[in-house]
Amino acid sequence: MPAIECRSLTKYYGDVRGIEDVSFTVEDGEVFGFLGPNGAGKTTAIRTLLGFLSPTSGGAALLGHDATDPGESRAARERIGYLPGDPGLDEDRTAEAFLDHQAALRGSGSREALVARFGLDESRRIGDLSRGNRQKVALVAAFMHDPDLLLLDEPTSGLDPLLQEEFAALVRERVVDGASVLLSSHVLGEVAALCDRVGVLREGRLAAVESVEDLRSRGGKQVRVRVAEDVSRGAFEVRGAMNLRVGDTVSFTWTGGYDALIDLLDGFTVHDLEIVDAPLEEAFMTFYDGDVPGPGRRDDARGARGTEASAPASGTGTDPEKTDADGGDR
Ligand SMILES: Nc1ncnc2c1ncn2[C@@H]1O[C@H](COP(=O)(O)OP(=O)(O)OP(=O)(O)O)[C@@H](O)[C@H]1O
């Protein structure tokens, strides 16, 4: 049974598109990344999957439970760890009181170990904590009941590099223990380091689902070559060569195969040759060429469920699971 099965999931806020026709599967034990710029629909997708927002159409199952059925969704959430993008924690409560509340809902087998691992001072009022320390509170809450499925929305925002490493190690450990993970991020490096596959969200739609390995190979190779001969630019202006620079050395991004590259260099006396993976950013940008992602509107808003248009994207108040769709924790 897949950890997440998402079938043509669509969510409009009134006439504003959140996500449209999003389908993907997160296999058991997989780390799946949602990648996309601000407003691409990552948070909307996660909150609709969790049952905090009612889908406009489509469906989903989490750990075999129907995400659109309130009772089933609640049952699934007992085995899910959710880290909201904006935890909206009650500033007046201490971290301890907040975690006690969360523990009563779902359990807290790993709480002590996580608090120690992230160096969290539970006695402090949440309102007095730095952004990074609030994120630690939310992280402990998401992981402490040893969930089978983790839904993590921009999990490392606010964490310093050391804590980001600690977080990555924690995710890897949980996956070894059998958990599945859906993680959203606009930080490519984070997704590349942690995920098996990545779904690229663009203007509410899933533009592609690829393995991180394929995404890397799509980015091509960066080639730098120094040859004995005088080089004319035209010699390298061939299909497959991009970002060409000709000087003492010739450098370009190569998106073709190795044989074609060898053919290209044939006839030159090569003094020096360096071939490295192109940065992942280049592959990522191919999904966004020429377009600035922004909010979409649908032509016909009549079918939309109208009550959520003014709701915030993330939970508000004391409980990260508090729904912004239907006015109560389902
Ligand atoms: N409560 C809401 N009411 C109206 N529109 C909303 C609401 N929440 C999100 N949207 C819109 O839905 C679209 C997707 O937003 P969403 O927050 O899901 O994107 P995101 O990829 O998570 O962005 P970010 O990285 O900034 O959190 C955006 O156009 C956004 O303006």
TrEMBL record:
Residues 4-228 form the ABC transporter domain. Keywords: ATP-binding, Nucleotide-binding, Transport. InterPro entries: AAA+_ATPase, ABC_transporter-like_ATP-bd, ABC_transporter_ATP-binding, P-loop_NTPase. SMART domains: AAA (SM00382). GO terms for molecular function: ATP binding; ATP hydrolysis activity. Residues 296-305, 319-330 have a biased composition (Basic and acidic residues). Gene3D superfamilies: P-loop containing nucleotide triphosphate hydrolases. Residues 288-330 are annotated as: Disordered. Belongs to the ABC transporter superfamily. This is ABC transporter-like protein. It comes from Halorubrum lipolyticum DSM 21995.
